[in-house]
C-alpha cells in the first residue's frame, strides 16, 4: 500500500499512527520498554495539551536535551503538533556554546534529563520553563506537571491542523568548524520532501526496523530516527549509548540502517578481530578463506567491473558456508539497504561490506539541505560516488568547482543571520555548498573536498586532505583522526590521534598497563602499527599526496572537543594554531623521538 504524501509532520503522524495502532512503534533493546502506535498517539495528545497549558504557542521554540530514549519521541512530536519549532541540543555542549545555541534559537522551554539542569541555569539564558523527564529538580516541572497543566477543552485537532508546510519545524545547528554554529531553519515542507524523496529511491516500508543511536541533535539521526518514522511508520529501537550499538544490532537485526563512517570502520575492525581471534584453527581458516573471496569480489565492484563467473560462484559458496553467518552475528543479515554519511568513507571500507554481502550506499548532504541531497539504491551504487541528486533537485558547478544546488531541500535560512543567509543562498535560490564535487555523465556525484580545505603545496599542487586522510584511516582501526599538513610546504605531514575505544581495546589485548593516550603514543608496537598503516596508505596515493612524516598525538581528539566537532569534523584552523610547534617539528631537518616516518615507504615527492 502506497503512503499518501502530506504537507506537515503532524498530518503525516496522525495518518501513520492510525495504520496499525497495536503495532510497536518504539522499543529499547530486549524490549525493556515498548510503545505501540496507539499509545504513542495518546501521549502526543495529552502532552500537546500540557505544553499548551504551560504557554507553548505556534512559532515558539522548544529545546530537548536528553539521551536516545523512548520518552523523547512523544514530547518532540507533541511540540510539533502545536506548531512549535522543536530541536535537540547536544548533551555535551559546554556552557558557553549552550548559551549561544539557546540564545540564537530563542528557546522558551527546555525539556531535559535532571543532570543537565545546572548547566542550563549556568548558561544565563532566561527560560520560562525547564521540564525534567525523570525526577524533577527543585524549580523545574516534571512531565506529570506538564500533563496536569493541560486544559480539558484543549482543541488538539484544531492545533495540529493549523500547522503550515512553510512553518519552521526544527533547527539544525551546523558543525561550527570555522566559527559559532549557525541555526539552520528547516520547514515541514523541507523535511517531508526529504523523507518522501529517499523513500522513493531506497524503498521504506511501514514496520521497517532501525536504531536511533547517534545524538538527536545530529540531523542524520533526527531524519532517520524521527521524521522517517512519523511519515512512513518505521519501528525505532532507542540505543542510549553509541558504544552499545553492536549488541543492539545483534538484538534487533534491522531491515534498514545507517551510520557515520567511523562506526562502519569499527564494525569492519570487529569482524576482522573476530576472525583473527578464532581459537579453532579450522574455523579460522574457513573464515579467512571466505574474507579473501569477499575481497576478490569487492575488488571488481570497486573498479566498476562485472564480477567474473568463477569469482561469483566461489563467493556464493563462501556466503553459504561463512559470510551469511558473519552477517547474522553482526545483526545485519536482514538489512535491505544501509547508508554511510556525514563524512567521506574510505572506499576500502565500502568495498569490505560489499564483499560481505551488506548493501551499503554512500550519501551526501548537509544541514542546509535537510540532510540527504544525493543517494542511490545499493543496486545502482557506484562505489566511490555519493549517488545522484534526489528527484526534484537541481545542481550546477561554479567556475572554481564548487557545487551549487537548488530545490525543495534548501533551508529557509540561518536563524537571525540574514546576511549570512544571503551569502549562502542567492536570489534565484541556489545554495553554495562549499563542497568541490564532480558530476559524471550519468549524474553520479563524487566528493573532492571542502572548498576551503584544499591544500596547495609549495610547488602549487592542489590536494584534498580528506582523500589523504580517508586513505590512511582505512589502514588501522587505531587511527581515530588525522590532520594532513601541507599548505605551502614542500611535502605533506600529519598529526594522528588514536581512537580512544580502539586504543583501550588494544591495551587490554596486549596487556599494556596503561591506556592513556600519552603512554600509547610512545608505545613501540603502536608506533610500528601506525607506521605500517601510513605506508600502506601512501601506496594508494599519488606521490605528491603521500605523508612523509607524522606524529602520534599524546591526547585523544574526542567529538565535541577543541579539535573535532560533535559531528566528527576536523577543526583544521584550530588544529593548525593549537599544534603549531608540533607541526614545525615535522619539518625540521632532524627527527625528534616523537616524529616518525612511514615503514618501508617509497621515496616521496617533494614537488
TrEMBL record:
Coiled coil: none annotated. Keywords: Fatty acid metabolism, Ligase, Lipid metabolism. GO terms for molecular function: long-chain fatty acid-CoA ligase activity. One of its GO terms (cellular component) is membrane. InterPro entries: AMP-binding_CS (IPR020845), AMP-dep_synth/lig_dom (IPR000873), ANL_N_sf (IPR042099). It holds the Pfam family AMP-binding. Residues 13-414 form the AMP-dependent synthetase/ligase domain. Belongs to the ATP-dependent AMP-binding enzyme family. PANTHER family: AMP-DEPENDENT SYNTHETASE_LIGASE DOMAIN-CONTAINING PROTEIN, LONG-CHAIN-FATTY-ACID--COA LIGASE. This is Acyl-CoA synthetase. It comes from Nocardia macrotermitis. The lineage of its organism: Bacteria, Bacillati, Actinomycetota, Actinomycetes, Mycobacteriales.
